[in-house]
Hints:
The structure is a single chain. The protein is mainly α. 73% of the residues lie in helices and 0% in strands. Helix 5 (88-113) packs antiparallel against helix 6 (115-130). The longest helix has 29 residues, at 178-206. The N and C termini lie far apart (55 Å).
Amino acid sequence: MNLISSAFLAARPKTLSASLIPVWAGCLIVQKLTGNWDVTLALYTLASCLCIQIACNFFNDAIDYKNHADTDKRTGPTRMTASGALAPRTVMLIGACFLLVACCFAWPLIELRGWPIIAIGVPSLYFAYGYTGGPYPLAYNGLGEVFVIIFFGLIAVLGTVLVQVGTEAVIPGTYISSLSVYNAGIILGIQCGLLSAVMISVNNIRDRKEDINTGKRTLAVKLGDSKARALAQAFIVAAYVTLPTSCRALNLDLSLTWWMWIPGIILAGTLMLMIRKFPANEQMNKLLALSSLHLIVYLTIYSLIPASR
């Protein structure tokens, strides 16, 4: 396997929808409430988020190998460092390069919106490494799901909204207050974060036995198998229980469009049943793809519902 193929696999392309979702959600909020959004700014935001996530995936690959967290009992996708396809130093260097590229894509956004982008960007850059590295690695201390909810949900969605509308009290050219847009961003950001955390939970349930032996104290390790599965299911339930609140914030009439959520609810129910029933082995890899599909369907339904202005 050559360098390009190995680097492509180390980037874990099947997980990258986690970067698309919050940018999509943030632009969706702005479009629903103002009727307009800036494609160029969205692309810069998406590119920067993708690079940060790819860097995080590279760092995870090398650091888990260094910490002996990837063993021959691993049931997840093959790690490039542990398999010997890439040297640890090469993987870390590629990760650092992606962080640099993320900064380049973020520069026009910094010029436009100023210090708030820096305030969001600096912690995001650090935790791309600090997720598995540094003095208190989040993934090794049961904080992986919390990290995803906050950074790939709340902060990423609000950051996208910030890029799109700025911080003025009233959005130029509209009668919409920026406060109402940010309120919607908080609600939808939490929902996206919860559904993204399902993927982390499934990943950690699958790897729980291996993580126990290697000292990786994920939330699944701390809670145990049954409670970890229940938590993943609770994340899904919470995303639907809060639908009335998010629909009001987005000026969507749920009473008239409830039927549009039926495909999402069916898919969510299927996912919850599979989380409960599937054994903690390679079969759970199917749940990662289904969790990603469910999140895409969830936001697609939001996108299709017309706003009531």
